[in-house]
């Protein structure tokens, strides 16, 4: 019994990032601390350097402690953690007051870390289903119109307006249509999809159900990478609950909508994050890129009209429907509306999830939120948008996080991953790695990507070794142009971006000059 | 039961007759005769006509009736 | 003539009117909607470089050579995967595009052997061509980078090699296997640079599901998949367009030659029957034509126990003529006869039947179609008025439901099977009626909605039950029946009888009534439903009844007279249709006209100058019976091994032994020639000049690639025998024979070699009313006026399983072999089927103590043979199956004298047998005992 005579509610994340640093042991230790407690395994708040982050429910709100090692628990309990006592070095005060979290605008991630991910009651109590209920009161056309008005763009990287894609599917005449969620989150330095699936799976389910209603689909698939066993288990459990609650299956929420949802597990190929490869894989085939046209919206899964959206895109839809498109569209800059869930990683002091409106500068993300490098050395380069994104020097920290501004700087926002490197990084090695990565992960279909990436590695090696440097720089430039212009999909098409940016911004690392590097 | 020892023309005539069992016997005989005239070599036809008259030939009654409608073989 | 190279438009044609206008390099071209920019350019005479695109395959977009510039589009889209849009402006040549294409080629060549001059495909390599086209002059990456040059070659297939070091990973072979052949045996393995072609699960081609159709070899743009004959002989220098001499599909081929030597057979894209596809037999198994076993000189002997004596043609022919006349003098004009071959040309067959009718002076001519499709002739003639299938092959592309009865197309008619499978993959539904679970029932991306697994011999009960459902469930197309048919009411009364209900016949057929009802509803309610059938229909004691039963069903549901419907016999041999058309039956003159018809006889009598017999002659089984009873004394056999192929071998050999003269005209000495007195060497299809008519009534040219190795065309030999018998019969060439056919036979009135050379092929009827031929019959009315419903009584066969012979044997064909195997056994095809096997269900094997590979005796009441067992649950319990490709097996030793009541077609498909263990298979090495 606590001093107040109540069973304390303690939150210990079940998120796999927290588990990887001992959250399970911490939870066990809390449960065995000698006092009756209710341990809730919530999602992560996204402050990964503080994991395992333990929160205790108090009349004054949730009080955070972290990072908590299992052996800290005894002391914490002794210090009154279960009553929210602040008298311990690990006490961080009220969770909501942690500035890192307080300064964010959490829309998509509003419930992540707050609720028990698998509690239907928690979900509804925290605003869940209001988007779906409202959507079902509207016509599919109206739902599509609202998504269009919200300005929501594909969060997977391409940034294609979701409303336009949905409209195409809605208007495609077919008896069978699909909604597919791309949860093959393969970009290095990205983990937001996983954290949403592990921390608030019902939001994704609700978003997909709204999409199904909007476009007239009756079946949905979530394609999750096999490296995410926790997300897979959480989604499967949540889907089971959703069926039990009448949120999925026949007559969803007593509406005319029938929607069945399935989880499919990928086989470890990066390319299956490319939507047409994902569809091939979902069909049971080798994950290989399809030529477009036909676009998946018209001929997608099994040749039927299909919405393919990323986890974050679909996960943003419930809020847009719940609060109306204007609330979402009011956030952001230019044509980049709403929020983006940025992921800070690499050599960074404070890594984790920063959901904020578009428009924040790169420097703000890396320095204000990230706190610079973990090594304490100066930042030298930041790669934004995954392994195919550009390497940017600190001189470009002024760039606002905005699709168009990044494109103008020969870079991309992508899936919002920000990976930081300190001044010990070898940028020629990074450029080589881009080609190596492409060579390893190419689906092997188109020539520029399949053969080009291998040759790219070899040419960079020659440049670095000083073999015919000038000639080989020309060869590399031509190869990059060919890959950009001639590849079938973004994999080969974007691989030159890190290479060229590294060469442009860090020519010394290649033993060359800025002029040659360009 | 027809066996290997049954002469081929009798076996075949019986098999044809079996196809017409549900028909009016006169019409059936007519059709069987027509079929035999159209498809059988005269020497087989002659044997059938010869056997149709003999008791114990094993011929189906319809085949016997059909044989009566067949013209005698001319060539061969 | 030089090598024929068909234009490759890069992507397939799209159906419909040309309505979209686009401008390519300043040229305006009008194409159907959905056409690719690449194809539109090709049609405008502009070739865009390409490697992964070819017009037999859907666009893929992998090579990136065909990039173009399109006004208003960013980047450089691939022209193969980009469909045209109205008003589109395309540029196919710009400096930037040239740069990109050179860049792509530079990458390709950086991982390709530089052995062009010694490469087997030198001069016929698209990679080489494209390197030239894009002007590749340098590979700046050098040749010491990562590469595939050391990958091994897979030579497991007897006909082609897979040299992985030359593979450019364009996937054309994989796609050809999927899209064209429909076998899905090939795949891409690995990722990125490690991507490579794999057969099956990564083993060799021979270990995989590959059926060696050659589609991958055909599709390969490099020397990666290469015919071994080209590797060994070099590139051919000229092509001759001709027609395959195997099954009734009648594929068009380019025989590619060096001098008179065939280097390879390449399927011809403009061939209407095959549209550029082939199977392992037509594509590769032509080596028998030059096999040393071929007998090239005539031979004569007095008695069949004497050794053969090679003689000159003159002596052989004089001998045959003299002996025939002598026998006729002693035993009467009707004592001799002839058998025509369904493997010979129309012209050769016509000559034989003319020799019999005019020179022999009787109607004792029959054809090997007697033992396969004679019930088709009878049944379709009775109901529709003509003895032929109703559709062209292309029609299947419009079928919504395909009912396959007693046919195994993937083995016996593989190229047409690929077309069926393609349609099924597009969504058409399939019903299979067959005792065996044939491959079509379930194969990659195909599954039959219903497999009606009936007991052998119960076809008529099944088709009657289906018709009963149509009539009693209100599924009759009343309008069609009223307008187009006759005798419906009587038939309706007959078929409505409760004895025909699916429930009533369930015990007979073994097919659950509900399944029959569901299948019938599917068939009857389809917009277009078509029936394909084979010898599983005809080779029964009720074969003719069954043909009429199917004809009834199609008429009752209005499935006749347009694309996508019909009743279609899949003919077994290349010219079954033609040999029947040419008057090979003893009761019919060419064009299926009865010998009793004075007017028709008059036409021939006037032209031939002889009086013709008006009574039918002997059919093959009658000939054997008459031989045994002594009234039939001499037989001329053209290209058919009746001892191996006809039922009840003991009976056949007894008949042949009783004859005074047996003349065999064939490529090889065979089982029948053991009983022959004269052997006249025949010609292979590579030497023949004439026509074959396939299962869709298509008359295709067979063109000689070399002069007859024997010195004489087969029709010349026949003419000379007739002359030796005192009948003047002479043609200067085969074309003259076709001209004679045309003037005597109304359905062939418009056919001539000149016409065929001009248009490729025509489907009869081809005459003034249909100058370009008739792809689909009975469109406005049936040939006989109204379609006639015929009551089809189910009379069970007298061949029943008994306590002594408890199993039913049924026989068939296998993909790699053909008929009696005289041809295919003399080719590399034996790699797949070195012997005939007895397939039996595990249960039947178990109760007899038989294991896979054991040698068993197979006994029926007429004979016994032995062969090895293959245990396979594709067989139903109680039914065993074998093929008759190998003489050593002698499958027909056990088949009986039962035959179709109307046509005497033998009942090959039902023989009561028993199987007993003879020699166990050698046991696998026993594991060492643990002490």
Automatic annotation (TrEMBL), chain A:
The keyword Iron applies. This is Formate dehydrogenase subunit beta. CDD domains: TRX_Fd_FDH_beta. Belongs to the complex I 51 kDa subunit family. It comes from Planotetraspora phitsanulokensis. Keywords: 4Fe-4S, Iron, Iron-sulfur, Metal-binding. The keyword Cell division does not apply. Residues 428-473 form the NADH-ubiquinone oxidoreductase 51kDa subunit iron-sulphur binding domain. GO terms for molecular function: 4 iron, 4 sulfur cluster binding; FMN binding; metal ion binding; NADH dehydrogenase (ubiquinone) activity.
From TrEMBL, chain B:
Pfam families: FdsD. This is Formate dehydrogenase subunit delta. It comes from Planotetraspora phitsanulokensis.
From TrEMBL, chain C:
SMART domains: Molybdop_Fe4S4 (SM00926), NADH-G_4Fe-4S_3 (SM00929). GO terms for biological process: formate metabolic process; respiratory electron transport chain. Pfam families: Fer2_4, Fer4_7, Molybdop_Fe4S4, Molybdopterin, Molydop_binding, NADH-G_4Fe-4S_3. Keywords: 2Fe-2S, 4Fe-4S, Iron, Iron-sulfur, Metal-binding, Molybdenum, Oxidoreductase, Repeat. One of its GO terms (cellular component) is membrane. The keyword Cytoplasm does not apply. Residues 158-189, 201-230 form the 4Fe-4S ferredoxin-type domain. Residues 18-96 form the 2Fe-2S ferredoxin-type domain. Residues 96-135 form the 4Fe-4S His(Cys)3-ligated-type domain. The keyword Iron applies. GO terms for molecular function: 2 iron, 2 sulfur cluster binding; 4 iron, 4 sulfur cluster binding; formate dehydrogenase (NAD+) activity; metal ion binding; molybdopterin cofactor binding; NADH dehydrogenase activity. SUPFAM superfamilies: 2Fe-2S ferredoxin-like (SSF54292), 4Fe-4S ferredoxins (SSF54862), ADC-like (SSF50692), Formate dehydrogenase/DMSO reductase, domains 1-3 (SSF53706). Its cofactor is Mo-bis(molybdopterin guanine dinucleotide); [4Fe-4S] cluster. Residues 237-293 form the 4Fe-4S Mo/W bis-MGD-type domain. In the C-terminal section; belongs to the prokaryotic molybdopterin-containing oxidoreductase family. This is Formate dehydrogenase subunit alpha. It comes from Planotetraspora phitsanulokensis.
């Amino acid at each position: 019994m606590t001093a107040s005579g109540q069973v304390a509610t303690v939150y210990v994340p079940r998120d796999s990032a927290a588990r990887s640093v001992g959250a399970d042991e911490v939870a066990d230790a809390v449960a065995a601390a000698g006092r009756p407690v209710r341990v809730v395994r919530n999602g992560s708040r996204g402050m990964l350097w503080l994991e395992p982050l333990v929160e205790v429910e108090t009349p004054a709100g949730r009080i955070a402690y972290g990072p908590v090692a299992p052996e800290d628990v005894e002391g914490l309990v002794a210090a009154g953690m279960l009553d929210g006592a602040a008298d311990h070095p690990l006490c961080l005060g009220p969770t909501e007051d942690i500035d890192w979290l307080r300064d964010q605008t959490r829309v998509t991630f509003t419930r992540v870390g707050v609720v028990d991910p698998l509690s239907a009651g928690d979900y509804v109590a925290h605003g869940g289903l209001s988007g779906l209920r409202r959507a079902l009161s509207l016509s599919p056309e109206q739902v599509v119109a609202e998504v269009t008005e919200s300005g929501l763009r594909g969060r997977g990287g391409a940034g294609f307006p979701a409303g336009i894609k949905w409209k195409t599917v809605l208007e495609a005449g077919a008896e069978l249509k699909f909604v597919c969620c791309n949860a093959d989150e393969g970009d290095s330095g990205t983990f937001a999809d996983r954290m949403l699936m592990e921390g608030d799976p019902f939001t994704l389910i609700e978003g997909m159900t709204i999409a199904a209603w909007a476009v007239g689909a009756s079946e949905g698939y979530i394609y999750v990478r096999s490296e995410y066993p926790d997300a897979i288990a959480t989604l499967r459990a949540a889907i089971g609950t959703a069926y039990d609650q009448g949120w999925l299956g026949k007559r969803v929420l007593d509406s005319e909508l029938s929607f069945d949802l399935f989880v499919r597990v990928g086989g470890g190929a990066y390319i299956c994050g490319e939507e047409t490869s994902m569809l091939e894989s979902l069909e049971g085939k080798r994950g290989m890129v399809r030529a477009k046209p036909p676009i998946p919206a018209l001929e997608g899964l099994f040749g039927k009209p299909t919405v393919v959206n990323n986890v974050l895109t679909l996960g943003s839809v419930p809020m847009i429907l719940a609060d109306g498109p204007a609330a979402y569209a009011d956030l952001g800059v230019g044509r980049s509306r709403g929020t983006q869930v940025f992921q800070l990683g690499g050599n960074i002091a404070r890594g984790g999830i920063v959901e904020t409106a578009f428009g924040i500068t790169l420097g703000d993300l890396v320095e204000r939120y990230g706190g610079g490098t973990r090594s304490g050395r100066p930042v030298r380069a930041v790669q934004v948008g995954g392994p195919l994104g550009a390497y940017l020097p600190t001189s470009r920290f002024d760039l606002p996080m905005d699709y168009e501004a990044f494109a103008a700087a020969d870079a991309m926002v992508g899936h919002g991953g920000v990976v930081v490197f300190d001044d010990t990084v070898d940028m020629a090695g990074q450029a080589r790695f881009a080609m190596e990565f492409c060579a390893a992960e190419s689906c092997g279909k188109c020539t520029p990507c399949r053969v080009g990436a291998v040759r790219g590695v070899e040419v960079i090696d020659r440049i670095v070794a000083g073999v015919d440097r000038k000639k080989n720089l020309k060869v590399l430039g031509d190869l990059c142009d060919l890959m950009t212009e001639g590849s079938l999909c973004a994999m080969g098409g974007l691989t030159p971006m890190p290479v060229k940016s590294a060469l442009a911004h860090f020519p010394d690392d290649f033993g060359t000059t800025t002029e040659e590097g360009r | 039961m027809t066996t290997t020892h049954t002469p081929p023309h009798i076996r075949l005539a019986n098999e044809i007759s079996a196809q017409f069992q549900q028909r009016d016997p006169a019409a059936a005989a007519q059709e069987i005769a027509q079929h035999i005239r159209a498809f059988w070599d005269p020497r087989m036809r002659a044997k059938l006509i010869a056997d149709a008259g003999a008791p114990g030939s094993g011929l189906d009654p319809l085949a016997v009736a059909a044989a009566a409608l067949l013209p005698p073989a001319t060539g061969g | 003539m030089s090598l024929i190279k068909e234009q490759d438009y890069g992507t397939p044609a799209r159906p419909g009117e040309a309505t979209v206008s686009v401008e390519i390099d300043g040229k305006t071209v009008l194409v159907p909607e959905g056409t690719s920019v690449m194809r539109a350019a090709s049609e405008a005479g502009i070739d865009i470089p390409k490697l992964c695109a070819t017009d037999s395959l859907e666009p893929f977009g992998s090579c990136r050579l065909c990039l173009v510039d399109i006004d208003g589009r960013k980047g450089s889209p691939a022209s193969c995967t980009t469909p045209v849009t109205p008003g589109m402006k395309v540029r196919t040549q710009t400096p930037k595009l040239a740069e990109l294409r050179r860049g792509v080629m530079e990458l390709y060549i950086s991982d390709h052997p530089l052995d062009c001059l010694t490469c087997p495909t030198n001069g016929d390599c698209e990679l080489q061509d494209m390197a030239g086209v894009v002007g590749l002059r340098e590979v700046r990456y050098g040749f010491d980078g990562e590469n595939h040059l050391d990958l091994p070659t897979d030579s497991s297939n007897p006909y082609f090699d897979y040299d992985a070091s030359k593979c450019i990973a364009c996937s054309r072979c994989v796609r050809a296997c999927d899209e064209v052949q429909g076998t899905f045996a090939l795949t891409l393995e690995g990722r990125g640079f490690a991507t490579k072609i794999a057969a099956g699960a990564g083993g060799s081609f021979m270990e995989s599901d590959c059926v060696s159709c050659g589609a991958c070899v055909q599709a390969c743009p490099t020397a990666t998949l290469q015919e071994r004959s080209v590797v060994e002989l070099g590139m051919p220098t000229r092509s001759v367009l001709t027609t395959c001499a195997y099954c009734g599909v009648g594929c068009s081929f380019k025989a590619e030659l060096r001098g008179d030597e065939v280097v390879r057979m390449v399927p011809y894209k403009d061939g209407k029957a095959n549209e550029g596809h082939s199977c392992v037999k037509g594509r590769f198994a032509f080596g028998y034509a030059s096999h040393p076993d071929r007998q090239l000189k005539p031979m004569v002997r007095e008695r069949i126990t004497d050794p053969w004596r090679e003689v000159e043609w003159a002596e052989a022919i004089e001998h045959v003529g003299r002996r025939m006349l002598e026998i006729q003098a002693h035993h009467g004009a009707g004592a001799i006869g002839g058998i025509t071959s369904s493997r010979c040309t129309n012209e050769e067959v016509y000559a034989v039947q003319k020799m019999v009718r005019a020179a022999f002076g009787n109607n004792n001519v029959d054809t090997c179609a007697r033992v396969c499709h004679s019930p088709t002739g009878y049944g379709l003639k009775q109901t529709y008025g003509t003895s032929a299938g109703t559709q062209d092959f292309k029609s299947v592309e419009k079928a919504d439901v395909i009912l396959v009865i007693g046919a195994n197309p993937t083995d016996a008619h593989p190229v047409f099977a690929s077309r069926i499978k393609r349609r099924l993959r597009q969504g058409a539904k399939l019903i299979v009626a067959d005792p065996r679970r044939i491959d079509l029932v379930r194969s990659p991306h195909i599954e039959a909605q219903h497999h009606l697994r009936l007991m052998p011999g119960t076809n008529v009960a099944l088709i009657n039950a289906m018709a009963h459902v149509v009539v009693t469930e209100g599924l009759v197309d009343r309008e069609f029946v009223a307008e187009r048919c006759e005798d419906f009411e009587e038939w309706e009364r007959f078929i409505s009888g409760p004895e025909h209900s699916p429930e009533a016949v369930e015990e007979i057929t073994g097919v659950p009534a509900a399944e029959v009802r569901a299948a019938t509803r599917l068939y009857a309610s389809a917009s277009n439903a078509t029936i394909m059938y084979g010898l599983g229909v005809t080779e029964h004691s009720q074969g003719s009844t069954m043909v009429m039963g199917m004809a009834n069903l199609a008429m009752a549901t209005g499935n006749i007279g347009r694309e996508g419907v019909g009743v279609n016999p899949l003919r077994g041999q290349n010219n079954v249709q033609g040999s029947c058309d040419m008057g090979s039956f003893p009761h019919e003159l060419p064009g299926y006209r009865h010998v009793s018809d004075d007017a028709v006889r008059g036409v021939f009598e006037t032209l031939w100058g002889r009086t013709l017999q008006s009574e039918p002659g002997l059919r093959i089984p009658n000939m054997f019976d008459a031989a045994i009873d002594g009234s039939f004394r001499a037989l001329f056999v053209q290209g058919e091994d009746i001892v191996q192929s006809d039922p009840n071998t003991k009976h056949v050999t007894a008949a042949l032994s009783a004859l005074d003269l047996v003349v065999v005209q064939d490529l090889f000495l065979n089982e029948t020639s053991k009983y022959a007195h004269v052997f006249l060497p025949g010609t292979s299809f590579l030497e023949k000049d004439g026509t074959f008519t396939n299962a869709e009534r298509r008359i295709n040219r067979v063109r000689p690639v070399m002069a007859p190795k024997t010195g004489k065309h087969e029709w010349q030999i026949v003419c000379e025998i007739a002359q030796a018998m005192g009948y003047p019969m002479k043609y200067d060439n085969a074309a003259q024979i076709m001209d004679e056919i045309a003037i005597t036979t109304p359905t062939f009135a418009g056919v001539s070699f000149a016409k065929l050379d001009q248009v490729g092929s025509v489907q009869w009827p081809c005459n003034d009313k249909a100058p370009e031929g008739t792809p689909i019959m009975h469109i406005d009315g049936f040939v006989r006026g109204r379609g006639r419903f015929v009551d089809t009584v189910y009379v069970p066969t007298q061949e029943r399983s008994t306590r002594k012979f408890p199993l039913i044997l049924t026989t068939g064909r296998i993909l790699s072999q053909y008929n009696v195997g005289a041809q295919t056994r003399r080719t590399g095809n034996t790699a797949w089927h070195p012997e005939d096997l007895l397939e039996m269900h595990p249960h039947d094997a178990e109760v007899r103590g038989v294991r896979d590979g054991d040698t068993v005796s197979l006994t029926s009441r007429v004979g016994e043979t032995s062969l090895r067992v293959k245990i396979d649950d594709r067989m139903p319990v109680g039914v065993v199956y074998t093929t008759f490709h190998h003489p050593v097996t002698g499958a027909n030793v056990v088949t009986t004298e039962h035959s179709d009541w109307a046509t005497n077609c033998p009942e090959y498909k039902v023989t009561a047998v028993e199987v007993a263990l003879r020699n166990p298979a050698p046991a696998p090495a026993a594991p060492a005992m643990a002490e």
